[in-house]
């Protein structure tokens, strides 16, 4: 008995499709990492290597002088502390307000729910200048202008829609049966949410905190408008670019991306767990 020939075309198409996806991921990764690598190499180059022309891909001389010049520049250390404080405070405030709001969106049905979610996104649709200028006037009248607290409020305003919507999608994925079982065993709704729902939603909340911290760290225009003597690091670098030497500019660019990368590296386990994968 002669068996019919196996059609291997679907298998080949699937294999080529998988190869195409891998190549696309590799291209996107290189596209995103190449500027970071170049900035990092330039930041650890010696001042003499920065003046070479044509400049090689791998610097001819490595030195910590470029980074030290940036760190020792006036205002760098205070600005770094302001950025870290603003980022941490923004994460805490966004989760404190946004996580319960996301839980309410996930567990309750109410009139105008869809319109409410769309309305929240309008805060991100507006240009930052539209928000920062009126907020600067408000902060001046309230006496909190040029403070880390003012920057935290601005960044929380920008991060809140993302935090609420991500939290809502995370809480939707937590089965209601688990929460109901906790209530059967004597927990109140608050205790069931605190002891059962929120621990299960921790990976998603950590992912939301990553987006919030990176948004706060990278935001520059609003911080430059509402601060003057207590600037964040991006605002400090922006204000110094006009008169700063070349070493300061490259080292400043590296200093702006490094803390965000470290924060993502620390929280990456929770970010991956959010999508159902576990890192060993």
The gist of it:
The protein contains 13 helices and no strands. With 280 residues, it is mainly α.
**If helices are DSSP runs of H or I spanning 4 or more residues, what is the number of helices?**
13
Tell me the radius of gyration: 24 Å
Please bin the fraction of helical residues: over 70%
State the end-to-end distance. 50 Å
SS strand fraction: under 5%
- What is the molecular shape? flat
Number of strands: 0
Series of H and E elements: HHHHHHHHHHHHH
Give an overview in words.
The protein is an all-alpha fold and 280 residues long. The chain is built from 13 helices and no strands. Helix 4 packs across helix 12 and helix 5 runs antiparallel to helix 7. The longest helix has 35 residues. 29% of the residues are buried. The C terminus is likely disordered.
């Amino acid at each position: 008995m002669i068996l019919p020939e196996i059609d291997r075309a679907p298998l080949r198409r699937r294999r080529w499709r998988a190869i195409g996806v891998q190549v696309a991921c590799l291209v996107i990764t290189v596209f995103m990492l190449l500027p970071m690598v170049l900035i990092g190499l330039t930041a650890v180059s010696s001042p003499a290597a920065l003046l070479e022309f044509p400049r090689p891909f791998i610097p001819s001389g490595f030195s910590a002088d470029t980074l030290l010049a940036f760190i020792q520049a006036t205002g760098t250390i205070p600005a770094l502390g302001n950025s870290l404080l603003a980022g941490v405070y923004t994460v805490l405030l966004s989760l404190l307000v946004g996580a319960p709001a996301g839980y309410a969106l996930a567990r309750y049905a109410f009139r105008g729910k869809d319109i409410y979610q769309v309305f929240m996104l309008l805060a991100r649709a507006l240009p930052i200048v539209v928000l920062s200028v009126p907020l600067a006037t408000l902060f001046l009248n309230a006496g909190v202008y040029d403070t880390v607290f003012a920057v935290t409020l601005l960044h929380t305003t920008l991060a809140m829609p993302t935090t609420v919507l991500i939290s809502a999608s995370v809480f939707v994925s937590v089965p209601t049966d688990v929460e109901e079982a906790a209530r059967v065993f004597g927990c109140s709704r608050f205790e069931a949410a605190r002891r059962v729902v929120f621990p299960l939603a921790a990976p998603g909340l950590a992912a939301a905190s990553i987006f919030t911290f990176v948004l706060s760290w990278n935001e520059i225009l609003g911080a430059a408008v509402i601060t003057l003597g207590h600037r964040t690091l991006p605002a400090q670098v922006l204000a110094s670019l006009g008169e700063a030497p070349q070493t300061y500019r490259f080292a400043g660019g590296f200093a702006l991306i490094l803390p965000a990368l470290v924060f993502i590296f620390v929280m990456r386990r929770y970010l991956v767990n959010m999508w159902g994968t576990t890192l060993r």
